[in-house]
Amino acid sequence: MFLSHLNPQQREDAVSALAREQFDVLVIGGGVNGVGAALDAASRGLKVALIESQDIAAGTSSRSSKLIHGGLRYLEQYDFKLVREALHERELLVSTLCPHLVKPVGFLFPLTEKFKERTYVGAGLALYDALRGFQRALPWHKHLSQKQINEIAPSLRPDIIMGAIKYFDAQVDDARHTLSVARTAIRHGATIATRVRADSLIREGKRVVGVNARDLVSGELIAIKATATVMCAGIWSDELHAKFDLKAGYHVTMSKGVHIVVPGHAIKSNAGIILKTPVSVLFIIPWGDKWIVGTTDTPYTGDRAEPLASQEDVNYIVDQANRVLTPKLNIKDIIGVYAGLRPLVANNKSSVTTKLSREHTVDRPAPGFVSIAGGKYTTYRIMSRDVIDLAVIELRKLTSESVTEKLPLVGADGYFALVQQIDRISEESGLDLPTINHLLNRYGSLISEILEIIKENPSLASKLTPELPYIKAEIYYAASHEGALTVDDVISRRTRIAFEAESHGIKLAELISEIISPVLGWTNKERKASVSAYQSLVEREIDALAEVISQAHKVNS
Ligand SMILES: Cc1cc2nc3c(=O)[nH]c(=O)nc-3n(C[C@H](O)[C@H](O)[C@H](O)COP(=O)(O)OP(=O)(O)OC[C@H]3O[C@@H](n4cnc5c(N)ncnc54)[C@H](O)[C@@H]3O)c2cc1C
Fold first, then answer.
1. 422-463 residue pLDDT tens
2. Which pLDDT score, from 0 to 100, does residue 115 have?
3. Which residues lie closer than 8 Å to 385 by C-beta, 6 or more apart?
4. What domains sit in the chain, N to C, each tagged with a CATH number?
């Protein structure tokens, strides 16, 4: 109790508990909604287990635009309740639940027309700001003069941009946040095991009483007993409903969203930029010393685990951004690309079991089994609460209400005080100020665990590579405290090297494998296998990007 580590020993203990114990709630899926549900249930005092077939956040929850936002576009649909709810969550996340992870970010809304557009967008943003009520962690929007626009965003084309309004939203490293929710759930007693896949349901009559699962590391079957099974499988929902022989009240279709990453110097701006596109919006989002630009929105029916960006996706993003940018983005600038799949929920008209809100759906297709899908990252806490509210009915006992609104994530306690002590921490640890700042914004008060590792092995204080902010201790920590079991887990989700470094960070795979190998107890053969598994995983993505780049060279020559 009170520990929040994920590591090989913890996994071994979790797998044996899964086979041995009777749980109140078993959650399938370790995306943000699954880990949120596990935390919600554990913090109500229930006995909870969660299984994830890949890695924590390996699905959509590591592939979003990474914005914690009310959703300006819902205002155009007059869905004020939804916007207010998301803005309330944004406020909670920035100020209380995880201020070390969720940060305010300013956006410019450029205007191409002087009066009508300014009135329309200005009124929308005033409403957006007003809907958050009296809680105000983020500044109010502001109309900018032409001079201010030139100062803040010299990259906006002065020939077509007639004005701009600056407003605020928030951003997060989605995979890191999902991991922090999982670790908080563990701290409150949840049993969590990754690489364990739900294969079929255990039934007593019509009632679901657990899940037959496969430990994908050992290959063994585990029969997990639970009074309520909660499925949070996102884009895998339809596939699992079919596999479990359940007639669900909704369908989940997929829409692909691609982002590109370009270096800081490619766009000169001190704020993010939001653009209306013919189909949706395009965000230009600051990401450390880089920019994330996206996204697309196209129907998808391919491999769920490995969505791939196409040449058209990348060209679309660059073309849309270049409508307002000077100098124009060059395809040669692109450092990284990633693709994610949105779970889009459609209600089955005949269903009597489904409660469909505008954004997410909860369902009870069989006694003992409930599920949730849809929604957006920002409102994961509400979704998690809603699905556990439904699940506790299965327990037929009095349970307390959700307390997650008042429950900061691991690392949040003392964060604001630690920021004030940054000079002292730097002096005592011997790490420079930018590194301490980087660590505080990734681990909050859990920075002490990283510093402990460095104390034991000072060589881990050095940087992984001069181009990126990560130090070697973070890589070690990914395996010793954060449940990374492969090179891919470290490169793609514990860090974001997969889209922050050239060629998906392949050049760093060997070094990373050497750092995590002692924690994972690998033989040299196992270490090499993890490196080559990562290499083959990214090969197809690199090929796709290389195709785009080679075309750009042809155009430019
Ligand atoms: C391009 C894009 C941009 C987005 N941008 C934003 C944004 O800026 N802000 C925002 O609020 N929202 C955003 N979203 C939406 C948000 O990312 C998703 O709504 C959210 O991450 C979904 O989380 P989830 O837990 O439902 O699904 P997932 O994260 O996909 O989790 C489902 C998990 O279930 C696991 N699983 C599947 N089958 C099994 C099995 N048999 N056994 C065990 N586990 C299994 C999977 O491995 C997976 O990890 C975006 C989405 C996309 C695609």
1. 999 999 999 999 999 999 999 999 999 999 999 999 999 999
2. 81
3. 40, 402, 404
4. 8-61+176-249+348-406 (3.50.50.60), 74-171+254-342 (3.30.9.10), 415-552 (1.10.8)
Q: Are 32 and 377 in contact (CB under 8 A)?
A: yes
CA 430, CA 414: separation in Å to the nearest integer? 21
Global pTM? 0.96
Ligand 1, atom 32, lies closest to the CA of 233
The DSSP secondary-structure symbol of 402 reads P
Dihedral angle, C-alpha 521, 523, 525, 528, nearest 10 °: 40
Ligand 1 centre distance from Cα of residue 233 (Å): 8
The pLDDT assigned to 556 comes to: 38
Identify which of 61, 194, 281, 314 to mutate to test ligand 1's pocket (most ligand atoms within 8 A of the CB).
61
How many other C-beta atoms lie within 10 A of the C-beta of residue 136? 11
Helices (H), 173-294: 174-187, 237-243
Q: How far does residue 348's CA lie from ligand 1's centre (Å)? A: 21
Cβ(225)–Cβ(209) below 8 Å:
yes
Q: What is the pLDDT, as a whole number, of residue 543?
A: 74
- Spell out the residues 6+ positions from residue 497 whose beta carbon is closer than 8 angstroms to its own: 468, 470, 490, 491, 504, 505, 508
